[in-house]
Amino acid sequence: MISQRIGFIGGGQMGQALARGFLQSGLTAGEQLAVCDPSAAAVEQFQSQAPGAVVCADKAELAARSEVIVLAVKPQYMPQVLKELAALPTEDCLVMSIAAGVTLAVLEKDSGAQRVIRVMPNTPCLVGQGAAGFAKGSGATAADGQLVQQLLESVGIAFELPETLLDAVTGLSGSGPAFVYAMIEALSDGGVRMGLPRHVAAQLAAQTVAGAAAMVLETGEHPAVLKDRVASPGGTTIAGLQTLEDYRVRAGLIASVQSATLRSQELGRS
Predict the structure, then answer these.
(1) Residues comprising the binding site?
(2) Fewer C-beta neighbours within 10 Å, C or N terminus of the chain?
(3) pTM of the entire predicted model
(4) Domain carrying residue 181
């Protein structure tokens, strides 16, 4: 268990997922967590996911009781949040932002905080299967990085990277779940096309993707090696793989990650 108290500015789904992960992994107790959000519904939902969490009336109260402040608000709200944060004594706080596209330079300049870490999580952290990247600001210490790694790994996996690579993380694991959902939908449609009931096809498709992903993660083997083990000479799988190549599915997925990355870079500049 860690000793730090963690305050969430923003009690939405991502904040709730992180708080729940911290508790379920045993990293924190409920009373170590706090939330501040103008939405009573969001606060109520946050407390349902993180029993024992303290509700703070404002950001000043939250900052006063927290060693780590998680900025879990949408990017469009960040300018106002950072302005308010700059007026508070945060010299001893680690500020961790999960807002997409808000750079370390902006976070450091506008928040007034000396120790800042930028995180790019993804929505599967809601079910404890997240994939995240993070980058330390100029004032963040090695211990800060270790703490954030520990926190993020309570809801999935995490990698410390240079900030210049966080847009690629956004393009791959940030946007990637949507690409996988499209694949699951298409596989399911293929099953229905060939006569399977819809509910059966959907569950078979989703479990197939989950199982294949688990094989990659648990064996540590290259996906190409695992693919070749399924594809018998002259069999059904190699016939299907040939069709994927004919329709340039691999090229489309590579291009999708590239497009999402470039769009993330554009949003960061704007």
Answers:
(1) 9-14, 72-75
(2) C
(3) 0.92
(4) 175-268
